[in-house]
């Protein structure tokens, strides 16, 4: 589960909060960060902009000791839950205009630099993406192909490529992505009066885990409470 909220403070500055709750088997992870963003116009009309973002907060990892089928006196279980909470931080930069969107991000910067984390596999190291928006007229408002690169520590990096197609003045969209981890993501969404936005996505299982349940559905809801007049 993830919850985000952001607000335009003024003077090209935005602020936000990000809360993530994740549970897999016996492990649960909670992450709370505050975000600062600065938007720098590169043209008089403001169509070209450079965006900077910085997030900082804490991550909490816990082990569900009550559900473990093992010796309850095993000291390693208690040691896991007594670990210090992690200071976490992300940095990102993006360029946007009428057509192009270029993005780059460094997730979990503080954790990546720690010596004890350098041997941990499957953690994210880098993200970059590029997309170009084509205007298609009234029937199909825009077509936006996109390619992204995700760095993975001690494992194969992942490349995503696909696109997003919008209809009816951006009220309806469908999208799809193929991942080099040999799986795909597809979904659709719709807006209600520029206030509520629903998104539904399905991601197939990666090739190495096809023997496990092959269904990952994600439901997203965005609500715009305040709009600039």
Description:
With 229 residues, the chain is mostly beta strands. The chain has two domains: 1-118; 123-229, no CATH class. The chain has helices at residues 75-81, 109-113, and strands at residues 2-10, 13-24, 27-41, 49-63, 86-96, 100-106, 124-132, 134-135, 142-152, 158-167, 172-179, 183-192, 196-203, 216-223. Strands 1, 2, 3, 4, 5, 6, 7, 8, 9, 10, 11, 12, 13 and 14 form a 14-stranded antiparallel β-sheet that branches. β1 and β2 (13-24) form a beta hairpin.
What are the defining features of this structure?
single chain; about 230 residues; mainly beta; 14-stranded antiparallel beta sheet; 2 helices; 14 strands
How do the helices and strands line up, and which of them pair or pack?
Layout: E1 2-10, E2 13-24, E3 27-41, E4 49-63, H1 75-81, E5 86-96, E6 100-106, H2 109-113, E7 124-132, E8 134-135, E9 142-152, E10 158-167, E11 172-179, E12 183-192, E13 196-203, E14 216-223
Antiparallel strand pairs: 1-2, 2-3, 3-4, 4-5, 5-6, 6-7, 7-9, 8-9, 9-10, 10-11, 11-12, 12-13, 13-14
């Amino acid at each position: 589960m993830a919850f985000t909220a952001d607000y335009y403070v003024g003077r090209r500055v935005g602020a936000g909060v990000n809360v993530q709750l994740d549970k897999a088997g016996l492990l649960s992870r909670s992450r709370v960060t505050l975000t600062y963003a600065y938007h720098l116009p590169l043209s008089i009309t403001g169509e070209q902009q450079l965006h900077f973002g910085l997030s900082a907060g804490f991550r909490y990892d816990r082990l569900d000791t009550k559900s473990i089928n093992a010796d309850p006196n095993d000291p390693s279980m208690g040691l896991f839950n007594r670990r210090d909470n992690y200071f976490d931080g992300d940095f990102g930069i993006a360029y946007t205009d009428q057509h192009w969107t270029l993005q780059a991000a460094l997730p979990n910067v503080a954790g990546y630099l720690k010596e004890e984390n350098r041997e941990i596999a499957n953690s994210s190291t880098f993200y970059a993406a590029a997309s170009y928006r084509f205007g298609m007229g009234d029937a199909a408002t825009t077509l936006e192909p996109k390619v992204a690169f995700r760095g993975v520590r001690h494992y194969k990096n992942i490349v995503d490529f696909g696109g997003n197609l919008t209809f009816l003045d951006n009220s309806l969209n469908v999208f799809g992505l193929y991942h080099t981890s040999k799986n795909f993501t597809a979904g659709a969404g719709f807006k209600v009066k520029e206030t509520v936005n629903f998104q539904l996505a399905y991601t197939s299982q990666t090739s190495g885990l096809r023997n496990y349940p092959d269904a990952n559905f994600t439901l997203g809801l965005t609500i715009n409470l305040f709009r600039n007049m």
